[in-house]
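Hi R.,

Here's the chain you asked about this morning:
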Amino acid sequence: MKKLIADYMENGFLENIIDMFKYDKKLFPLIGDMLEDERSRVRLGAVALVETLMPEHGGDIRTAIPGIAKALKNPGPTIRGDAAYLLGLIGHEEALPFLSDAIDDEHEMVKETVIEAIETIRSGAKAFSG
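And here is the predicted structure, written out as tokens:
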């Protein structure tokens, strides 16, 4: 299923994938895998997916936190930064231990995004300024 979703995302079927996730909440844990996909279009789609679903499905997206948090350890700084951004966007305290472990990231932009995500979650803000 995860390969199918990633392939659809790569082919530009974001709206279809959004509908799939709205229908089947068990898919949310796959977001972390999409975020670590080698294809940039899939990674960008994962970010867009969370941004689109957060307003109405924020509670369900919480199930994606462990998978997204795993991406904080990815060798690629862009992926680590995107993971921190998404955890901040989700805004749930469950993400704080993962973000705290990543606060000393060697890449300055990732580190800044991690800090901003932590501040967003601690302040209880629902929107992430990115």
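One quick note: The chain has a mean pLDDT of 94.

Cheers,
M.
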